[in-house]
Automatic annotation (TrEMBL):
Cofactor(s), by name: pyridoxal 5'-phosphate
Superkingdom, natural source: Bacteria
GO molecular function annotations of the record: pyridoxal phosphate binding; transaminase activity
Record Pfam families: Aminotran_3
Assigned protein family: Belongs to the class-III pyridoxal-phosphate-dependent aminotransferase family.
Keyword Transferase: yes
Record-given protein name: 4-aminobutyrate aminotransferase
Xref: PANTHER family: ALANINE--GLYOXYLATE AMINOTRANSFERASE 2-LIKE, PTHR45688
Alphabetized SUPFAM superfamilies for the sequence: PLP-dependent transferases (SSF53383)
Length: 424
């Protein structure tokens, strides 16, 4: 029998490139919110935030093609497009983070951000939430490792319990902000006592990988006070919340109402083209240059800048942030109309939704959610899971998602819910 694509992938790429779903999907084409596999089956994409303005958006494709046909070279020559981009995006921040280092991935951006904080403070202690993911460099992967690293966990890193809607830190929803901050204060004290000192906290303002909890604006106020009192930096990882995804705001940190010292971003920024960035104040940039220095061959090259600029154009021209807010609210309303005994909570922020499932005894319905996902894929709807126990359905579609798309998503989910058995 001839070798399958899965076997060939394993033979050529080894075991380090996971795929989604029990039957990995072989996609060959995308357009807007739609994807097609090799057999011609069409899928509604309710998962991917990378094609932020829609798969293969013609304006982004055109910008990439035009610039690729004109000039692409490494980043040590002068070019105005990247400067126009940084100026334009920098103007969306209201806390002075107007200078940028361009990179190719969110991992690199977070790595730089953490080292910036170490450069500013002269200290090495880092705080993040548990059950998170911020990337895969040697430094950043220590924040989200699922296996003990060789040599053991780094002592300068502390992971505090992530906020949670159903099992709040500290036991009550009302007390969660203070309880979260208390754990941050404790971690800072430990880092100081052990001689590392405290340099930064890094978090996603939606706590998306952690489960997308419902949090009121101001949630991080006591945490920010603790960070400021200790002289450390706050780094907002906007890889998932950024570029209008939260609907009400262009940036997740503005939605939650806190002012980070450094902002990192990636995934949706180039609509699939690998471009990412770190935005920081001039004083932070200067400290980083003095302590480390930095160069990135591809980060912010002319083609990347053209792709990123076209994404901003489309977000504005097509009113995609407003769509995230309006259509997003409709999706939540429809999801809340679903009836199933295991649905514990429906959550939504802009164009990002979670439905958490618990078994009758209150345990996470992890297997049930895995089965639901497979059922949805079989019926042509792509989504996935989030959260510590992977018992929350994760839906994060491209931003042009319409009410009609929302109806298809929720109607399909209703069918799959009805036909998926509850097994422990
Ligand atoms: N931060 C967060 C919150 C992410 O979810 C991810 C990727 N899933 C990253 C950083 C890493 O980005 P990249 O894969 O581009 O390195």
């Amino acid at each position: 029998m001839s070798e399958t694509l899965i076997e060939r992938r394993a033979r050529l790429m080894g075991p380090n490139v996971p795929t989604f779903y029990r039957e990995p999907v072989h996609l060959v084409r995308g357009e807007g919110v739609w994807l097609w596999d090799v057999a011609g089956k069409r899928y509604l994409d309710c998962y991917n935030n990378v094609p932020h303005v829609g798969h293969c958006h013609p304006k982004v494709v055109e910008a990439i093609s035009r610039q690729a046909a004109t000039l692409n070279t490494h980043t040590r020559y002068l070019h105005d497009l990247v400067l126009d981009y940084i100026e334009r995006l920098g103007a969306t921040f209201n806390h002075g983070t107007t200078q940028a280092i361009m990179t190719c991935t969110g991992s690199e951006a977070n790595d730089i951000a953490l080292r910036m904080a170490q450069a500013v403070t002269g200290k090495t202690g880092i705080i993040a939430t548990d059950n998170t993911y911020h990337g895969n460099t040697a430094l950043v992967s220590q924040l989200s490792t699922r296996k003990p690293p060789i040599g053991g966990y780094a002592r300068n890193i502390r992971l505090v319990p992530a906020p949670d809607s159903l099992r709040p830190v500290g036991g009550t929803v009302e007390g969660q902000a203070e309880a979260f901050a208390a754990n941050v204060r404790k971690a800072i004290a430990e880092l100081e006592a052990e001689g590392f000192g405290f340099s930064a906290m890094l978090l996603c303002p939606l706590f998306a990988n952690e489960g997308l909890p419902d949090l009121a604006p101001g949630f991080l106020d006591p945490t920010m006070a603790a960070i400021r009192a200790a002289g450390g930096l706050m780094i907002a990882d906007e890889v998932q919340p950024g570029f209008g995804r939260s609907g009400s705001h262009f940036w997740g940190h503005d939605r939650l109402g806190f002012a980070p010292d450094v902002v990192t971003m990636g995934k949706p920024m180039g609509n699939g083209h690998p471009v990412a960035a770190v935005f920081a104040r001039a004083d932070v940039m200067a400290a980083f240059r003095d302590a480390f220095g930095y160069f990135n061959t591809f980060g912010g090259n002319p083609v990347s800048a053209a792709a990123a600029m076209a994404v901003l154009d489309v977000i504005e021209q097509e009113g995609l942030q407003a769509n995230a807010q309006q259509t997003g609210a409709y999706v939540v309303e429809r999801l809340k109309g679903l009836s199933h005994p295991l649905i514990a909570q429906v959550r939504g922020i802009g164009m990002f939704f979670g439905v958490e499932f618990l078994l009758e005894d209150g345990d996470p319905a992890t297997t049930f959610v895995a089965d639901l996902i497979e059922g949805m894929v079989a019926r042509g709807v792509l989504l996935n899971n989030i959260g510590k126990h992977r018992n929350t359905l994760k839906m994060r579609p491209p931003m042009p998602f319409s009410r009609e798309n929302a109806d298809l998503l929720v109607d399909t989910l209703a069918q799959v819910l009805a036909e998926t058995p509850v097994l422990r």
